[in-house]
Amino acid sequence: MRTGTFLIAAALVGLAIVVLTRIFFTNEYFFFAAYVVLQYIVLSTAWNILGGYTGYINFGTGAFFAIGAYSSAVLHKLPALLKTFDILIPAVPLPVMIVVGGIVSGIVGLGTGYLTLRLRGVFFSIATLALAVVVQTLITNWDFVGGARGAYVLRPRVAPLIGGEYVQYLFLLMLGMCVIVLATARAIERSALGYGFAAIRDDEAAAEASGVPTLRLKLIATTLSGGFMGMAGAPLPYYVTYLDPTSGFSLNYAVNAIAMPLIGGTGSWLGPVVGAVLVGGLQEYLRVTISSAVNVLVAGVLMVAFVIAAPQGIVGLFQRKR
Fold first, then answer.
1. Residue 247: C-alpha distances to residues 66, 173, 241 (Å)
2. What angle do CA 61, 65, 71 make, to 5 degrees?
3. Please, which of 108, 129, 265, 299 could form a disulfide with 315 given CB 3.0 to 4.6 Å?
4. How far apart are CA 135 and CA 148, in angstroms?
5. Closest CA to 177 of 20, 42, 18
6. What is the pTM of this model?
7. CA-based nearest residue to 254, from 19, 63, 26, 114
8. What H or E segment, with its residue span, contains residue 160?
């Protein structure tokens, strides 16, 4: 099946999901929980482009996710700021915020890759972790977006275009992002770009000696990965309605973005989806029945168990048996 056909089929399935959920699910919590799972599908797929396909482990997921979230917060406050200078502009639509958040995060990913991708192994991972600390420190001291105290972002009561509750609109946007990100990941996996990523992952020195443009491919990977992470974080202010460094740089995002692809399998585009649905669904169930404090514990325990018992993840385990 070609990528275009896959994209059309995924879009039709997504539309069917939206219609069915609007008909059969009247409890708004379903949309809140489904939004979180879809968000983790986007986030873990974005991480897998760099960490799974290319083999560069990124510990800075929270930085790119928060950059997307705070880009939306800035655009949300921009009309009020310009109004003080007698410049009137309409409110920025959320889809535009998502695009802007993805572009800003992608540019940061490109710059980070250019500065750090000459590092390899654990040194690169430490550098990405340092990036998250630097970005969090800058945002914590940025008064325009609330600094350490945070800022409220009031979402509309009625969703545009579709009507109903706004959380249904957020669910629809995140579902659309899932289709785009998964189609991109699948296209990469079956293209020359994907083979280049795999060559870097398997033996970067041999790939470079064979003429593979390793630095250029790694920059592409960091840009795509960072951009998709920013897109996943862009709707966050409208989901939580109160954005502060604690929620924007939550440890859940950094841990789950790594755990979900490892549990599902990093060798294919399907692995992050399986891991996100399994772990994200379990976490949402435990959030309601026990406490949200166990989310990181669940992801950590499952990640350790699968690394020991099934290093190739669930998808890899089934492929090996088949």
1. 9, 20, 11
2. 150
3. 265
4. 13
5. 42
6. 0.88
7. 63
8. none
The residue extents of the domains of the chain are 3-251
Average pLDDT, rounded, for the chain:
85
Burial of residue 78 (number of CB atoms within 10 Å: 0-12, 13-18, 19+): middle
* Closest CA relative to residue 98, chosen from 288, 234, 300, 259: 234
Q: What is the mean pLDDT of residues 28-40?
A: 87
DSSP summary character for residue 158: B
Q: Dump the DSSP string for 27-92.
A: -HHHHHHHHHHHHHHHHHHHHHHHHTSS------HHHHHHHHHHHHHHHHHHHHHHHTTT---PPP
Tens of pLDDT, residue by residue over 241-270, are 888 998 888 888 888 899 899 998 887 888
Are the C-beta atoms of residues 117 and 222 closer than 8 Å to each other? yes
Q: Provide the pairing of β-strand 151-152 with 242-243.
A: antiparallel
Helix (H, G, I), strand (E, B) or coil at 21: helix
Our CA dihedral for 26, 91, 70, 119, rounded to 10 degrees, sits at 110
Number of neighbours of residue 176 by Cβ within 10 angstroms: 18
* Token pair for 105: 């995060």
